[in-house]
Structures are given as C-alpha cells and as structure tokens.
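Hey, I was hoping to borrow your eyes for a little while. For a while now I've been wondering how a particular protein folds. The fold is given in discrete form, as structure tokens running alongside the sequence. Could you read through the record and tell me how the tokens relate to the sequence? Take your time with it, there's no hurry, and the full record follows here:
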Amino acid sequence: MAASPPLAEYNLTGMKLEKTWRWFGKNDTISLSQIKQIGIEGIVTALHHIPNGEVWPVKAIKKTQNSIAKYDMKWSVVESLPVHECIKFGSVERDKFIENYKKSLMHLGECGIKIICYNFMPVIDWIRTELHYKLPDGSETLYFNFVDFVLFDLCILKRSAAKHEYPKTIVRKAQAKFLTMSDNDKNQLINTIIIKTQGFIDGINADNPEEAVTIFNTLLAKYNGIDDSQLRKNLKYFLEAIMPIAEKYDIKMCIHPDDPPIKVLGLPRIVGSHADIQWIFDNVPSPSNGLTFCTGSLSAGVKNDLKTMIKHFASRIHFAHLRSTQQEKEGSFFEAEHLKGSVDMHHMIKSLLIEIERRGGSTKIPMRVDHGRRLLFDFNIDHNPGYPLIGRMKAMAEINGMSIAIARSLITF
C-alpha cells in the first residue's frame, strides 16, 4: 500500500482558499495584530477616507499596504473601489469619474493589488431591517423583514409607486403595522436602513431621520426613468472603458451580487440571478471581467440555484464571500450560522477547490467569511454591523476546517 501524502501537503491543498478578513482601516475596533492571531493570510479593505469618485494615490495605497505587511499579511482584495453614482445613472459627468477610476486601477496595479470587488447597486449597497435580531441561543444576527422593508418604502419614504410593486398581502400587512408603530420605531427603521448599514462605508450621514429620508429620496429620484436595460448599458459602458487598464495589470474586476437580489425601491437591479450574471460576461467577455461569488447574497434569492451557478461561473470566480442565509416565508431571511441555513456550504467549498485544482499552479481564491453572528464578548465591543470579532472568528474556523477536510478527501491515493 502506498504511503499517504504528508500532512503538510494536505494543509497546502486546503489553504488554496486564501483566508482573508475584512478590515475597515485604522478606525476598525479590530486591529491588525488581533487579525493576525486568527491565522489570516490576506486583508480585504479599502481607502475609506477617500471620497467616492476621487483618485486613490499610490502613496495612500502603499501606506495601507505597508501597515498590513508589518503583520506578515498582504492586501489581497480591494473591497470596494466604489463606482460613483454618476457612472451608474449615466450623468454627463460620468466620463470624468471613469477616468478617475482608471487612474485608481492603474495605481493599484502598480502596487501589485490584483483583485477588486465592486458593485453596481444604485443608491444602496445592502439592505437589512434589523441589526440585532435575537436567535434562540442568545446570539444576534442581521435580519431582512420583508414586511418592515415594504413599510419603510411605502409609509416612510412615501414612494407612491411602492404599493403596486410588492405583493398585495405584504402591502396590507405593512400598512397595518405602520399604524401601530411609535415615532421611535420609525426612526429606528430609518437609522438601520439608511444610516447604519451604509454610513460606516460610503453612505449617507445625516443629523436626524427627516434629513436622512430627504437625502435618500433625492438619490432615488436620480434613477427615475432608468430601467434594468439602461442600467445594463451603463454597466457595459463602464466596464468597456476600464477593461484595458485591468487587462494591462492582470486585475480581476469582481462584481458583487445585489443584496438582496430582488427588486427594491423602484430601482433597477441587474446582478441578482444566473441570467443577470451571464449577460455581464456575454457582453463584456474580457478575462478581467469576473465575479465575487457571495453565497449569502445569492441565497437570499429563492429562485437562485447556487449549485448550478457556482459550477457554471467557476472560471470567472476570483473572490468568494462564504456565508449562509435562512430563508423564511414571504421573502424574509436572516443571516444563519455559516454551516447551516439555506446554503449547502460543503458543496460550495468543494466546487471552489475543484476549480482551483483545474486552474493549476499556485492559484488561490481569496475567501472571507462575510458577516457573522454577534456572540460572547462581541456584545462588549463596538463593531460595524455584521462584522463582529468572535462571531466571524468562529465562522472562519468552521469554514477553514471544512475546506481542509474536503481538500484531503479530493486527494487521489
């Protein structure tokens, strides 16, 4: 009987899913020294202090890069290099902002950073209605309550078309619940959807709920008359403009799916389904045009078949967000434990590892455990929504352990 490969070989194979961690820079309550102790290899971050649309200077990129390198880690993925709203809705100023984007890409390429996660979601990056949803075990997670979201759209934003865009049963429940809400309840919903889930990255900051709603409605109005077809044209225009720079520096532009992948706020949504993603690759076939495979965002779409999607788009996946959601009735969902919920995480990891082996060489796909439950000492630490220390550390241990076990099972003896 042939001898089994040494354990080091098993570990090397398992680690081809590069362990990365989202870090929000010097203002993050979780330090690089703490992250290093978890066994993280790469950092996922951005220059959050630079306003959207401005050029990222080489000096600023290197400063962050060097800060990470001091802890024997690397800046593996930029998340995100934000796409300015003018590019998304196609204003007369978009070419100026595209040129700035190209310069930032060039500077990142010169610094050796090759993977860029970005999204093309109008106005709002991600949506949750509750940030401290209590689970039976006492931990807390993020929650999207569809009734509460429709209530926000219809009764707080007072968008007239909203009542025709959602199921009638949900609209009736939302209207009835609104009548029972206190002003504090309403303000909390505004704070959660507009401020808390957006402001800590690149979103709206306002002094009071009324101001936040006014600003938000102004941004929504910029997309009046823009449907999915027009937003796709604007995405194609943007990608075709930046692809020569991306190709020159071997940069992979990895678009992030819509979160959640459903129609919201009357806005166009174009990265929520298998067909949406296929359109992007068919219309911009550059090898630099890639995908961030977010199992959490995609699993929130009840019609999405993640097993088919990961197999079909495997060669385009250059970055992965591994998390799970638990779908509920009427379109609601919450962030589940990473090895539970609606996602077959074993299958997701196995598919990624098989694709890595197919590519050969020293290929790695950066992976981070997107979001995490709040548990244990997380309740004593102020952190960005969805990004606690202990909850994500537990999730990373689970995902990494499963990755190594699957990798070992794939070795031919």
Q: What stands out?
A: The chain is about 45% helix and 15% strand.
